[in-house]
Amino acid sequence: MTDKTVRLGVLGLGTVGAGTVKLLQDNAESIAAKTGARFTVVAASARDITKQRDCDLEGVTLTTDPFEVVNADVDVVVELIGGYDLARELALAAIQQGKHFVTANKALIAKHGNELFAEAEKTGALVAYEASVAGGIPVIKALREGLAGNEISQLAGIINGTTNFILTEMRDKGRDFADVLAEAQALGYAEADPTFDVGGIDAAHKLVILTSLAFGIPLNFDGAYIEGIEAITTEDVNLAGELGYKLKHLGIARQTEAGVEMRVHPALVPESHLIAKVDGVMNAVLVNGNFVGETLYYGPGAGAGPTASAVVADILDVARQLGSAKENTIANSGYTAGLSNAAEVLPAEAFNCEYYLKLSVQDESGALAQVTSVLADASVSIDAVVQHEPKGESACATLALITHEVNEAQLNTAIQALEGLDIVAGNVTRMRVASF
């Protein structure tokens, strides 16, 4: 038995909040054996404190005012309400009192993390946020601790389960985007307003956090390039398959000589690659370190159990560091204050990669030659081509191309020229090809 007790205040008793309390209760003996401490939830806030929840709240002071929890006699404040503004106020209130702060809120860290870390540096508070990225996968711990001796060159991941579920269903069952999205909403994978998921914003929040940890740059959500999956068609998914790829929605961060690429967008992944095999609502993050090489972190990216697992892991880490001298604790940002990397976050025009292009062209002799001539004039070379003859009453054939690596600004010029050809109908579809 241990006589060390860590007092917790929990903000939010929704699915994850109740799951966190239940995990602490159900696994109390093994947790005590691992940490030498007992963890007691003494206060919690919720919008409806009368609602029945799947955890024991006996002895817990319940309130509808989260600031009462922050101001209570607690050692650690656990924030599980989400959002930007109120969460920021609560975080600052806790940190300014020197209370340690654990959160699953990726939006809070991506948008306000720099401010929170700076405030925590003054008070000595610890800020832990493992659950903010990839649910139960301990990728933040991997970057901050397990790979700390490496210089990271690149990371790439499927970090939103909703988009991965949609693209998997479109590929495996030939369904269209709107149909699968409706099912994802019915299953609870997507919100009634799915913009954050399918528009890439949720993934961008997570990528910004991973990029900061990997390369030591300040959190910079405004610098992230973001594309969603709303425009992807079943035809695109099928054409990618014919070319030897699977379509995935990725977050990618790369350190280059020019700066840091930080981008979220659909990407064609070689079907033999491990990332291509991650389906459904699962998440995976690939990290390249200069000594360890390529490592992959895979698992459930959301849900009460996986997220609560990550939240509790942070609570235990904080407890282990309680009472330690500041210089013996892990920096909240992963890097010593004042020694962050000043590398520029690059705009999309500076990206260099291979590309997928899809064109509708008049079914006439010499059409492909005209397309390849325009690309050659822009110094864009072709690696692979698939051509489909016109279907039904259409007079247009479909061309799908994979280019060799090219600069994005250069490719944009080529696309403008292609769209100016009389034989090309409508706009050219462009997606990036992932290289690892």
What keyword list fits this structure?
Rossmann fold, Dihydrodipicolinate Reductase, domain 2, Alpha-Beta Plaits, 3 domains, eleven-stranded mixed beta sheet, elongated
Number of helices: 14
Mean pLDDT: 94
Q: Regarding CATH, which class of the largest domain? A: Alpha Beta
CA(first)-CA(last) distance:
49 Å
Radius of gyration: 24 Å
Determine the structural class based on helices, strands and strand pairing: alpha/beta
Tell me the number of structural domains. Answer: 3
Total strands: 17
Question: Which ranges are low-confidence, i.e. pLDDT below 50, for 5 or more consecutive residues?
Answer: none
Tell me what you see in this structure.
The protein is of the alpha/beta class and 436 residues long. It has 3 domains: 5-128 and 304-328, Rossmann fold, CATH 3.40.50.720; 149-299, 2-Layer Sandwich (Dihydrodipicolinate Reductase, domain 2); 348-433, ACT domain (Alpha-Beta Plaits, 2-Layer Sandwich), CATH 3.30.70. It contains 14 helices and 17 strands. Strands 7, 8, 9, 10, 11, 12, 13, 14, 15, 16 and 17 form an 11-stranded mixed beta sheet that branches. A 6-stranded parallel beta sheet has the order 3-2-1-4-5-6, sandwiched between helices. Strand 11 and strand 12 form a beta hairpin. The mean pLDDT is 94.
Helices and strands in order:
Elements: E1 5-11, H1 15-26, H2 28-35, E2 38-45, E3 61-63, H3 66-70, E4 76-79, H4 85-96, E5 100-103, H5 106-123, E6 127-128, H6 139-146, E7 152-158, H7 161-173, H8 177-186, H9 195-198, H10 201-215, E8 225-226, H11 234-242, E9 245-255, E10 260-270, E11 282-289, E12 293-300, H12 304-321, E13 352-362, H13 367-377, E14 382-388, E15 396-403, E16 406-407, H14 408-419, E17 424-433
Parallel strand pairs: 1-2, 1-4, 2-3, 4-5, 5-6, 8-10, 10-17
Antiparallel strand pairs: 7-9, 7-11, 9-10, 11-12, 13-15, 13-16, 13-17, 14-15
Helix pairs in contact: 1-12, 4-5, 5-10, 7-8, 13-14
